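retry 2 of 3: previous attempt timed out while embedding molybdenum atom. Reduced batch size to 1 and resubmitted. Inputs unchanged:
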Amino acid sequence: MHIRIKRGWEIPEHQATPEQVFLSRRTLLGAGLGLIGAGTLPAHAQGTDPSAALYPAKRNPAFTLDRPMTPEDKASTVNNYYEFGTNYDVGRAAAKLKTRPWTVTLDGMVEQPRQVDIDTLLKAMPLEERLYRHRCVEAWSMAVPWTGFPMKALVDYARPLSGAKYLRFETFLDKAVAPGQSGRFYPWPYVEGVTMAEATNDLAFFVTGIYGKPAPNQFGAPLRVALPWKYGFKSAKAIVKVTFTDQRPKSFWEVVQASEYGFWANVNPQVPHPRWSQATEKDIATGERRPTLIYNGYGPYVAGLYAGLEKERLFT
Ligand SMILES: Nc1nc2c(c(=O)[nH]1)N[C@H]1C(S)=C(S)[C@@H](COP(=O)(O)O)O[C@H]1N2
Ligand SMILES: [Mo]
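retry 2 succeeded.
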């Protein structure tokens, strides 16, 4: 039986948060909380980011939200980035990462392995803005305007061979700049991966910016992944290499604790983490709890990707 489910863009207009409401909420929140200072200024704020002129990119209206956008000051001060510390306040530490020059290697099962400078890549990719929800496996969530390009555009650019089944993402490795990478317990560098079918789905996105500007370092500049139907740990930051392979990549958290963090990691409120429930999530801006949605609300786009894979641990 075919059940027609409403897509994200079919949400009635009155349920979307208009920009003005967002802006006034932000002012209120800012006034109420006493904003945290800018700290170390990232490259874009100093006007030194060579990609600054590419922003803001045109918003793709297909991707709408069912909740208010998270104010910039909140999203910028609640981040997960173990390379720079295990708390959520990593902005200052992450600002030390030099994001220029930055080379991205595209290798493995491709017609011709190559290395591309981030600014060359940015000019070759169709930049757009998308409003996406983000759901961390630790049961917090936000909703932000990412700028970036469809993952499919990079797949086409890389020209994979027909035998390639997965993309493997690798984060930079530099202990001198990232104190967390000296911790021997962890299998650095951070690695993540998706299937080719997932990567070429409409929702899979590479992020280069946020809030209409190049992304500050704590968000994973200059290149990170956004897979909004999966738990946040799948969205690797500061990527230096994308490898096309026929072997399923073993991701960072899977190596650390496979019983808790698997390859698929699709959001599902009915499948608890071994140590906590996933039924609800906490909004990082308001502290409000709301019910978690299957595939983080993106089921109409992605549920079909998993047909025939029911025996896999799709939700861990
Ligand atoms: N390289 C790297 N990527 C990472 C992480 C990390 O520690 N290192 N944390 C992940 C987790 S658990 C989450 S929830 C998101 C957080 O993204 P945000 O800080 O932009 O909200 O980044 C993901 N990507
Ligand atoms: Mo997370």
